[in-house]
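INPUT
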Amino acid sequence: MDAEAAKLIGAGLAAIGAGMAAIGVGNVFGSFLEGALRNPGAADGQQGRLFIGFAAAELLGLLAFVVAMILIFVA
Amino acid sequence: MAAESGKIDPMHQFQIQEIGDPLFSIAGHPIALTNSAVWMLAAAVALWAFMLLGMKRQVIPTRGQMLVENFTGFITKLVDDNIGHGGRKYVPYIFSLFMFILFANLLGLLPLGLVGLHPFTFTSHFTVTGVLAIMSFAIVLIVGFWKHGIKFFSLFIPHGTPLPMVLVIFPIELVSFLFRPFSLGLRLFVAMIAGHILLKVLAGFVINAANASPLWGGVVGVPSFVLMIGVSALEVLVAGIQAYVFALLTSLYIHDAEHLH
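OUTPUT
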C-alpha cells in the first residue's frame, strides 16, 4: 500500500475515537440528567463534577482528532 | 463539476501572518506584530471596555454593573466551591483567565470576514493555550511547595494506601499529575481548531455546491448552510464551556496545592 494512502486510512480510523467520545459525553450528561430528575434539589451542587466528567471524556475524543491531524499534516 | 472548482483549505485560517515590518530581532529571529498578537490586543481591549461597565461600584447598580457582577459572582462561587478555605486570593487570576479565554473564543467566532476583516482565534494555537496552562501549573507547583514543602509529594499517595501499593501508585499519580498542563492546554486548542475546521468545511460545501449548479446548490448547499447556522450556535456554547472548564480545572488543581487532598 502507498504510504500516503495508509496515512489517510489511519486518519479515517482515528475518527472512530471521536464517535467513542460521543458515547462517553452522552453517557456523562445522560447519567447526570437521570440523577438530577430523581433529586432536582441536589442537581445544582453537582454541576462542577458534571463538567469535570465532561472534560475528561471530551479530552480523549480530542486526542483522536490530534492523532488524525498528526497523520495528515505531520507524519 | 466540483473537481475544477476552488478547493477550500480549512487550515489556512490558522496561519500566523506578520503585519508590517519586523519591529526588532532577538538572536537573529525577526519579531513582528502578527495577526495573533493583534487579536490578543483586541481581546484585551474588549475585556477592558466590558469591565469598565461595572467598575463604579454603585449602590444601585446599572445594567452594565449587573452584567459584570454576574461574571465576578459566577467565578467567585466557582472558586468558593472548588478551592474552599483560602481560595479568595486566586479569584483575580481565575477571573482574568476565564474572561480572557471567553473573549478570545467569542471574538474568533465573529463573522467579520463579511467586511474583509478576518478574525483570528488565537486560542486555536498550542503556543497560547500552552502558556496559559503552564501559568496555572506553575502556580500549583509554587503554592504547593511553598505551603507544604516536601510533604507536597504526599499528594501522589492516596490516604490509607498499603505500603506495597505505594510503589505502584506513586509513579502513576506522578505521571497523571505531570500530564495536567498538556491536557489543560490541549483541550482548549483542539476544541477551537475542530470547531473552526468544521465551519470552514461546511462553508466549502455551500460555495462549491452553489457554483456547480442550482440543483446542487439546492440539494447540498442549502442544507449545509442550515447546518452551519446550527454548528455556529454550538460553537458559541463550546466557547463558553471551554473557558469554564479551563477555569474549573485550574481551581481544582489549585485546591490540590492548597489542601493536598
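end of record. The two ends of chain A are 16 Å apart (CA to CA).
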